[in-house]
Predict the 3D structure of the following.
Amino acid sequence: MSVEIRIWDGERRWALAQMFARAFAHDQAMVSLVNANEDNAVERLTTWFDLTLNAWPPSQVLVVYEGEEFVAGTIFSLGNHAPPLRFLLRWFWQQWRAFGFNVPLHMVQHERKRFKIYPHTSALVIEFVAVDQRARGKGLAGRLFDAVYGLVERPANVALETGNPQNVVIYQHMGYQVVARYEDDGVEYVVMTKSLSEET
């Protein structure tokens, strides 16, 4: 069955959140951020991604469909800047109701660290890239990156971070360079950047 990459239409949010949750269920950084454990990681991450997607602009979410099913996706920001206050207040309130005070507070503290470290010249910030387990090995992550690069005017700088050491090598093969490292809640985060020229 063929796959199609397109901007998310805002529909079937819970199903998309579940796909992201399954992809990140063994990611130490995300599991730590939502205060999950092995038994409830998918459940808590699904709730977290559902609330985040509810507040996020659908125009900044690319999804890969296989038929009508979500098999991969990326959430991104256009520029390295804090979200609007209205977004933050709504998101914080919803997270607090779902998880209690500690999870949204931890997320806000993490974001403050990140914004200080990320290059301010970044035109594009890759927030999350998820490929469902059953769709891995098909090159979907690379296709997602190419698709999201096509949404920004070039030349442009792209930034991302990962708390998964295995991803660092993958991103280096994609042309990213390590620019910073920082620790948060026992997880080492690696900040990486890439320059998109007019020719690439």
The chain has one domain: 3-154.
